[in-house]
Amino acid sequence: PSSLAEQAVTFMETDRARLARAIAKQIQVTVPRYQSVDVDALAGNINTVLASVRPLVLQNDSARLGRVVEDIARLRIASGFGVSEFLASALCVLPVTRRFLVMRAGSISEGLEMYELIEAVVLPFMGKVASVFLDTSFDATDPESFSSERFLSMLSENGRTPFPPMQISLVEDDDENTVTPPMGKRQPKRTP
């Protein structure tokens, strides 16, 4: 693992409660059903998730995070949440994490590099979780129909992530004189 990945995880661990609360608020804005969940309880769940990120990011080990996600999924399903609501809430984690890392890094480019190292591992994990949820075909109204063993066995092989970090494609503009910043506005490239 790179020192930037280690630094990113350390930033996330150091200010985990604040990051968890920001993610919880984003989830409540993005997925209205989560407004019925106490923000402190939701942030507590997210805090537990964030505490399990180190092994995934630095050793490609999904076992701990897989168990945490399974426990939270069971809790949400028992509370009447649908799979789509649970998965939509997971999509709120990365954008908030990106901003968090960019704000704490020495520079925007360093923050984005840190984020990309996290994203390259967490995004495929999220994709795998989504496909496992869809493949388990459980009755969302009956939490007992959710099989922990099946979920965890489909999620990982011997407790390890069954895929390497993925490469995120770079989108290059055809017009060499412009860049597209995150806000979507086109601006002329700066000349050094």
Major sheet description: 2 strands, antiparallel
Beta content comes to: under 5%
Strand pairing plus helix content: what structural class? mainly alpha
User: What's the order of the H and E elements?
Assistant: HHHHHHHHHEE
- Helix percent band: 55-70%
Shape: globular
Supply Rg.
Answer: 18 Å
The CA-CA distance between the termini, in Å, is 32 Å
Q: What is the count of β-strands? A: 2
Spans with pLDDT under 50 lasting ≥5 residues?
177-187
Discrete helix count: 9
- Spatial ordering of strands, largest sheet: 1-2
What is the residue-mean pLDDT, rounded to a whole number? 77
Provide an overview of this structure:
This protein is mainly α and 192 residues long. The protein contains nine helices and two strands; from the N terminus they run H-H-H-H-H-H-H-H-H-E-E. A hairpin with a 7-residue loop joins strand 1 and strand 2. The longest helix has 29 residues, at 108-136. It is globular. The protein starts with a helix and ends with a strand. 28% of the residues are buried. The model is unreliable at 177-187 (pLDDT under 50).
Give the helix/strand layout.
Elements: H1 3-14, H2 16-30, H3 39-51, H4 53-59, H5 63-78, H6 83-90, H7 93-104, H8 108-136, H9 148-155, E1 178-179, E2 187-188
Antiparallel strand pairs: 1-2
Helix pairs in contact: 1-8, 2-3, 2-7, 5-9, 7-8, 8-9
Quick structural overview:
With 192 residues, the protein is an all-alpha fold. It is built from 9 helices and 2 strands. The relative contact order is 0.13.
